[in-house]
Specification:
Blueprint lengths: L4 H11 L16 E4 L3 E3 L4 E2 L3 E4 L3 E3 L4 E2 L3 E4 L2 E4 L2 E2 L3 E4 L2 E4 L2 E2 L3 E4 L2 E4 L4 E2 L3 E4 L2 E4 L4 E2 L3 E2 L43 H39 L1 H25 L3 H8 L1 H24 L6 H20 L5 H19 L26
Parallel strand pairs: 1-4, 2-5, 3-6, 4-7, 5-8, 6-9, 7-10, 8-11, 9-12, 10-13, 11-14, 12-15, 13-16, 14-17, 15-18, 16-19
Helix pairs in contact: 1-3, 2-3, 2-5, 2-6, 2-7, 3-4, 3-7, 5-6, 5-7, 6-7
């Protein structure tokens, strides 16, 4: 069984580090990396390198050739040409009408093989399935909803030997039951903890505003204009990140990178909450007809947002759900804008309306 599929996940893991830059080469050049863009390899063109697309769609037209691996996250991949390498897709659908000389891994999506599909390798899915036309050709095995160890490139876990029978333990005399006293419930401590957490994050928000106010404004603009898309991006990031970390840990060589990725989601949550707090602070000052410096308004807005969220989280059963949804939106806004370094998809950098300054009439 081929093991080159591991290289695909290593490439995917490196793309999740927010400091990495996205670039694309010509069809006849080296590897192609795209973030939030679509890619098309036209007929009679050849890509001598790997292809990685996040947040976009990819099309390999008929008679086009890819001499490398193909990775796609959060989009649809259509292969009508030839791919001499492995294919991995996460959170999207795969349609094959051409020839693939390698293994295929599909996570959270479907793979459709038309009558002209020719796959010289294995196909494994996690949280999805394979739809194969009777005339399609597959030389390897097809495994639907396989465990992680069934994906090509992931080592198998050996069987655990049977444990010998343990002799019966003699009966012990009944011990009087100890009264169940709950000493952990302290509503005053929970309230003080929520206030302290809100003050700490508000202080961090004021510090970030001094150096990263434009980036915070881009994140806030993405959240207010596209809250549903931001929540979807946040959910995808939270779900995919542990899987990517697991792949990197299994490869051993990228364990330091896995430790770095473990801090990405918490940092994205903090940055996104500060950006939302900036928007809350601006609306709060407008509501009370005041004009504050951005540092003060952002600090106040973040304090109110975290404090109210902490109080809501104390509500039994349902409080944690609302806090979780706000966290998804915060992480998604950061993911859409790559920590505010660019505008979100569908929002141009010039769409933010500047404040109106009233000019007094000339005397």
């Amino acid at each position: 069984m081929k093991t080159k599929i591991t290289t695909l996940f290593l490439l995917l893991a490196l793309l999740f580090v927010p400091t990495a830059s996205a670039h694309a080469q010509s069809p006849n050049g080296d590897d192609v990396f795209l973030l939030g863009q679509n890619y098309t390899l036209n007929s009679d063109e050849t890509l001598n390198g790997s292809l990685a697309v996040i947040g976009g769609n990819a099309l390999i037209e008929k008679d086009a050739v890819v001499n490398g691996d193909v990775v796609l996250v959060g989009g649809n991949l259509t292969i009508n040409g030839d791919v001499s390498g492995n294919v991995a897709i996460i959170g999207g659908n795969l349609t094959i009408s051409g020839k693939i000389d390698g293994d295929i891994a599909v996570v959270g999506g479907q793979a459709v093989l038309t009558e002209t599909a020719d796959v010289n390798g294995d196909i494994a899915t996690v949280g999805g399935q394979v739809q194969k036309d009777p005339d399609a050709k597959v030389s390897g095995n097809i495994v639907n909803n396989a465990p992680l160890t069934a994906i090509p490139g992931i080592p198998q876990i050996p069987n655990v030997p049977n444990i010998p029978d343990v002799p019966n333990v003699p009966d012990v005399p009944n011990v009087p039951a100890v009264p169940n006293v709950n000493l952990n419930f302290n509503p005053l401590w929970d309230v003080l903890n929520a206030i302290w957490r809100a003050l700490a994050i508000a202080a961090i928000a004021m510090l970030l505003t001094l150096f990263l106010q434009p980036q915070l404004e881009r994140v806030a603009d993405a959240v207010t204009r596209q809250p549903l898309m931001a929540g979807s991006f946040g959910l995808l990031a939270v779900v995919v990140t542990p899987f990517v970390m697991l792949i990197m840990v299994v490869t051993l060589i990228l364990i330091p990178v896995a430790i770095l990725v473990a801090f990405v989601v918490p940092l994205a949550w903090l940055f996104g909450m500060v950006a939302i707090g900036q928007e809350v602070g601006e609306r709060f000052t407008k509501a009370i007809n005041q004009t504050w410096a951005p540092v003060l308004s952002t600090g106040m807005g973040t304090f109110l947002l975290v404090l109210i969220g902490g109080f809501i989280g104390l509500i039994p059963c349902l409080g944690w759900l609302l806090v979780l949804l706000i966290g998804f939106v915060a992480v998604g806004g950061v993911a859409m804008t790559w920590f505010g370094t660019r505008s979100a998809p569908g929002i141009t950098s010039g769409t933010i309306t500047p404040p109106v300054v009233e000019v007094p009439p000339a005397s």
